[in-house]
Every structure is written in C-alpha cells, then in structure tokens.
Amino acid sequence: MIQQQFILVVEILSEDMGNLVESCQFNYMYNIDWLVQQYPKSFRSKPLLLVHGEQRTSQANLQLDASKYPNIKLCQARLDIMYGTHHTKMMLLLYDTGLRVVITTANAIEGDWYQKTQGVWISPVFPKLPGDGGTNLGESPTNFKKDLIQYLTAYRSPKLTQWENHIKAHDFSSARVFIIGSVPGRHTDRVKDAWGHLKLRKVLQNYGPPFKNIKDWPVIGQFSSIGSLGPTEDSWVCGEWLKSLTAAKGIGLTSSLSSKLQLIFPSVDNVRISLEGYGAGGSIPYSIHTAQKQKYIHQYFRQWKSEGRGRSRAAPHIKTYVRPNPEFNEAAWFLVTSANLSKAAWGALEKQGSQLMIRSYEIGVLFLPQYFNDEETFPITSDVRKSLNQKKATFPLPYDLPPSRYEKGDRPWMWDVPCVHLPDTNGKKYCPPMK
Fold first, then answer.
1. Is the pLDDT of residue 225 over 70?
2. What is the pLDDT of residues 100-109, one digit of tens each?
3. Rounded CA separation 48/26 (Å)
4. 435 confidence band (pLDDT: 50, 70, 90)
5. What is the structure's pLDDT at 382?
C-alpha cells in the first residue's frame, strides 16, 4: 500500500526511475544549484521548468540563479490575494515510457532533505495513451487526472499548457489517491468545493466511510506552521475546518466536534533535543503575536514523538491529517499535504458561506482504504517492527499513537521567543534573529 523509508531526491530523480525527457518542479523555496546536482549527469541538460511564487527582489535572485542553466525556465505563480504563497511541492517527471507524479512536503533545498521528517508520495509511471489521449481518457476511479489538469489550469499560465497536454496524453487509471489542492481566489458556485477543506469535505461525503461507523472517532492534524485562526475556536478551526475533516457518508450531526480534535505540533523541548537543535525551529513558524490571540488552540496540542519510526529527533516538516479509531489501530482515511494549519492554506468561508477564499497554492493526496484493500478501514501503526511482522498491509504513520499530551511546563514552539534556559543538542541557546 505505502512504504515508510528514508529517500533522497537523487533517488527520486535517478536513472533507475526512468529515462527522463523533461521535468517540472513546483515549490516554495529553491536552491537551484543544489537541485541541479540532484539530477544525474545524464539528465542535467534536460528541459526543466521551475514553478515558484517569488516576487520582486527574490524573483530577481531566482532568475539570476537560473540564468546559469540554459535548460531551465521559470514560471511565476500568480498571487493575487495578499499574504498568499506558492506552497505546493510537486514534481512532474516525463519519461520516454510515461509520466510520474511526486508530491512531497519538502522544499527544494538541502536542509529540508537532511535531518527532518518529510512526506513523499511517488506515483507509478502512468503510460502514454494511444493517439493524442484526452481529458476523459485514462481516468482513475479517484478522478486524479481531471483534478491534476484542473489544478494546473488554475495557474492560468501558458508555460504550463505543455504539461497539461502531457497529462492528457497519459493513462492515469492506476492512480488510487485523491488530489486535495488549493489555489488562490474567491471560489463560488460549482468550483467552491473543488479546493481546500471543502474539496476534502466533498470527497469524504461522496466516497468516505459511513457516518454511523466513525461518528465517535477522533481527528488528528499534524503540521509545522500555524496561521491566524480567528478569535475563538469556533471561528474557523473547530467550525468550518473541523466540519470538513469530520465529514462522512450519510447525514449526521455530532454534538461536539472539538472533543474529537488532537493537533500534533512540536513543543520547545521537541525542538531543543532534535538533531538540528534550536535551528530546526526556523522551519516551524509560529509567532508569539499570533499565539497570544488564539490560546484556545493550545489545549488540543500534542507532542511530536516518533519512537516507532526512530524519528523523534528528526524535526517534523511533514503535514498529515488522519481519522483513526479510538483504539488508534485503524483509520478511515489519511492525507499527506503541503497544507499547514491556516486559513490561507485551507480556505475560509465568506459571504454567509457562499464563497471560499484561499490565499495560497497547496497540494496533497488523500488515501481512502477501499481503493487499496476493498475495506472501510486500514490498519495503522507507527512501529516499524510491528508493520514488518504483520501479514496484512499496514499503513505507516510518521508519529506514535496515541498522541502524547504536553507535560506540565511544556509550551508550543514559537520561533520568535528566546530559549536561553537550556542548551540544545548542539550545546547552543536560542535568540531569535532580528526581523
């Protein structure tokens, strides 16, 4: 079903994965020199399109870095709503035998692939269709092809038209996951539930487990950044957002959605004892200014612990969401995505719920059990040894279950708060950089 292992970019881009013709990278951050070195020498002159959201000085610097490579072209994602980002992390790899899609949580920089916990979904090679193909040919049971084309089309960039055509020309019928994407805009009418948390809600209502089977199951969110969530818990996170994450087939009302919520976010001590020490906190942005306005959210926080995977000290940059049973040994669904806990990423309803406003680009894949084992749930574990010994395929989670509560004196990591009482793994104390 899915494997949990240590993987490097060089392995994803290696000749063993296919004879590359051209590729397209989507990301939030790039180190172009480093990225080029991850391709084998035989592929380094192949056409490469980098989709980014840089503007002004940062855009000029990226253009300068790319100018050293005649095979590299840039595509700037439109960010029409203030404070939005191009946060999607995806690779489209065209081989002479087909097309592969890779969706990850890591930036295209060395530090994100070293001493951190990340998520990577690697598709099979989707073969080329006879003739010119088409949008409706070679579709999967999860509408993966249509949704991927819709996502690329939302960029409104002629530079991506070629990749839309590549997708149309390939057979995606073997895809078994759903795309859950976000694109900037104020989405209304028929496209309102095509994006963000409303897309997740729609998929779960149409294809998810029956409400009566999971009505008492918790929801776990795990992420590496937190935005401004509103003045009360019902403003957004325990209102519309959690309503989407608790969606299921059938009509049902739950008395208290918030009682089901658990949020895994690193504590100060999780960061302090990580392999990178306090330096890991630079990739876990949560500010004290934001935290002080939403103290209600802290009651849902749980520690980052991954003893079963041996990754407790590998700071999490991965973002995952899951609906496990109360015994924490089965799950109704699992989502790995670039989307952190923020309205910008997931969207927020406006105008009495008639439109969904999203600021950022995000993408992830949703796993539903019936597309893998023909059952309503799949077994889950974070224990590597246990999963190897089981006859039945087990879905590997990146953290231990049940999630551990914060201990007395713990507080969530905030990257603009000094930590000078205890040294970290490297013997250093922490003073936030001047902004």
1. yes
2. 999 999 999 9
3. 11
4. low
5. 86
**Residue labelled with tokens 């070195």:** 37
Backbone phi and psi for residue 102, each to the nearest 5 degrees, phi listed first: -125, 125
CA distance 65 to 46: 17
Contact 397, 406 (CB under 8 A): no
Whole-angstrom Cα distance, residue 254 to residue 257?
6
Is the pLDDT at 47 greater than 70? The verdict is yes
Catalytic amino acids?
87, 317
Q: Are strands 378-381 and 395-396 parallel, antiparallel or unpaired?
A: parallel
Nearest-10 crossing angle of helices 161-168, 144-153: 170
- Token pair, residue 68, equals 């050293």
pLDDT of the residue at 328: 95
